[in-house]
Amino acid sequence: MEENKMTPVYELKALIGYFFKLGYAGFGGPVALVGYMHRDLVEDRKWISEEDYKDGLALAQLAPGPLAAQLGIYLGYVHYRTLGATLCGLAFILPSFFMVVAFGIAYRAFGGLPWMQAIFYGVAAAVVGIIIISSFRLTEKSISKINIKSLAEKWMLWLFFFLAALITILTEKEEVLLFVAAGLIYMLVKSPPKWFKKPAVSNVILLFGTGFWQFETDTLGQIAWFFTKAGAFVFGSGLAIVPFLHTGVVTEYHWLNEHEFIDAVAVAMITPGPVVITVSFIGYLVAGFPGACIAAFATFLPCYLFTILPAPYFKKHGRNPSIKAFVDGITAAVVGALAGAVIVIALRTIIDLPTAAIALITAIILLKTKKVKEPHIILIAALVGMALKLI
């Protein structure tokens, strides 16, 4: 508790700058993004404590909405409260939002992006390598080093980890009830609260030919309602929202066809920032720039509210031994689910020998050296993808 009252060792503008950079250069989707935040803010810069990071990760996974965006909002809240949460969230989301809108303009202007699939071929494989290493490092920091001694001493946390990973692989979705159960079980075993031990009482520029300003008012209303549901009721990492989007966008409303929807997911993967920003690309194709803005706002507003409203209680009670044990149990399950998500993504993305080679080389480079940064790898992978597919 005292640690949270200390004056932060950084200024708010520095944290905003970090999230702005993560928004335009952070490739790899939710698994990689939460790993970058831990590496940069907890390990390297020491701006955020390990406890605050774990609290944020647990809260982000328990609440519906995009994991990485919620964690970024919470970390902004840690020392600068609502102002920090709001500005860091905007700094993280806006760069990728404008990139995706630019892709939407190009898509509408040129009738599709065949070259995008070539880029995605190489980038997606590199992303798999990035998230493998991110997941590995996050696992070691959140639970412990992977060795016989750790497996024996923290067997229960590792049990939650492997169980969550297995369920995620088999069901291809993340079960929030499993996270809650892991937290409760670990709390009751390690540090049961007093109420459990005895009875207690409950307490504009015009862009012609690109659809920039082509929309229907009724459609905007449908977009607002559909994407609000997407942000408010879909649990898990950014990729968890894709099946929900497919059902509404392709099957129910018929806003996009299958090919266009696949291109929308590809855009999200080849642009930095949160994967959920694909909602802006979809919104643009359906109703121009207003549709993109409404889709993004409707998706991210619930996750913002679900983060800042409970945040004070997490910060106030987070050092209670029972709450800390609860968070440790959830964290083990969450990290296990993220590791399982890596396998699911890899099985869908590694389709042949070249993609396997790109993923393996990426993982080895990131594991062996810190000099090569992820954006450089992404650029090289994009060029390799184009060379393999278009030449």
Account of the 3D structure:
The protein is an all-alpha fold. It has one domain. The chain has 18 helices and no strands. It has helices at residues 2-5, 12-25, 29-44, 50-62, 67-110, 114-142, 148-153, 155-171, 176-190, 194-197, 217-233, 241-252, 258-270, 278-308, 311-317, 321-349, 353-368, 374-390. Helix 2 packs across helix 5, helix 4 packs across helix 5 and helix 6 runs antiparallel to helix 18. The longest helix has 44 residues, at 67-110. The protein is globular and about 60 Å long. Residues 1-5 and 199-208 have low confidence and may be disordered.
Name its key features.
391 residues, mainly alpha, globular, 18 helices
Which SSEs are present, and which pair or pack?
Layout: H1 2-5, H2 12-25, H3 29-44, H4 50-62, H5 67-110, H6 114-142, H7 148-153, H8 155-171, H9 176-190, H10 194-197, H11 217-233, H12 241-252, H13 258-270, H14 278-308, H15 311-317, H16 321-349, H17 353-368, H18 374-390
Mean pLDDT: 81
Secondary structure category? mainly alpha
The largest sheet is: none
| Tally of individual domains | 1
List segments where confidence is low: pLDDT < 50 over at least 5 consecutive residues.
1-5, 199-208
> Number of helical segments?
18
Silhouette: globular
N- and C-termini, Cα separation = 59 Å
Order of helices and strands: HHHHHHHHHHHHHHHHHH
Short description:
This protein has 391 residues and is mainly α. Helices cover 78% and strands 0% of the residues.
